[in-house]
Specification:
The chain is an alpha+beta fold. The protein contains 3 helices and 5 strands; from the N terminus they run H-H-E-E-E-E-H-E. The longest helix is centred in the first third of the chain and has 26 residues. The protein has one domain.
């Protein structure tokens, strides 16, 4: 039995991605670190001022230049009622008049495809409203052994 939640068997998969006692704090911290690294990489790509190292980066709610606007964890205002309208990151390319909704997940290996589809489904209405693309970013929290020959 899991020593934290006392509900499930204490397996590696349970501890790293399923325990209800760890979900609200530890999993959220891991998620935000991955999202912060993606945000840092976007700042680097678009030549926006950022820290030298990704792990020192603090994402601002709105960063804007003449060519791009990057929103961090903000509710998006829409003309219609849309339930899911707070992706992790929104990138607005002003020159090409395109936007990209980025949402991060750090699932166990067995749930990667399921989580990707969940993210696509969750933000489809918002993407349709804004006429943009949804980009789920998934980083498995488990490592499968690899054979090197």
């Amino acid at each position: 039995m899991c020593r934290m939640c006392k509900n499930r068997e204490e397996t590696v998969t349970h501890i790293i991605s399923e325990c209800s006692k760890l979900a609200q704090l530890e999993y959220k911290k891991r998620h935000d670190k991955v999202a912060g690294a993606v945000h840092w990489s976007l700042c680097e790509t678009y030549h926006i001022k950022h820290s030298e190292q990704w792990y020192q980066h603090t994402a601002e709610p709105v960063i804007e230049t003449d060519s791009v606007k990057i929103l961090w964890d903000m509710n998006i205002q829409t003309d219609h009622v849309i339930e899911h309208r707070r992706p992790d990151i929104v990138v607005v390319d002003k020159h090409n008049k395109r936007a990209l909704l980025i949402d991060i997940a750090v699932p166990a290996d067995a749930r990667v495809e399921e989580k990707e589809q969940e993210k696509m489904d969750r933000y489809q209405d918002l993407a349709r409203e804004l006429m943009c693309l949804v980009c789920p970013v998934l980083l498995s929290c488990q490592c499968k052994p690899c054979l090197v020959s």
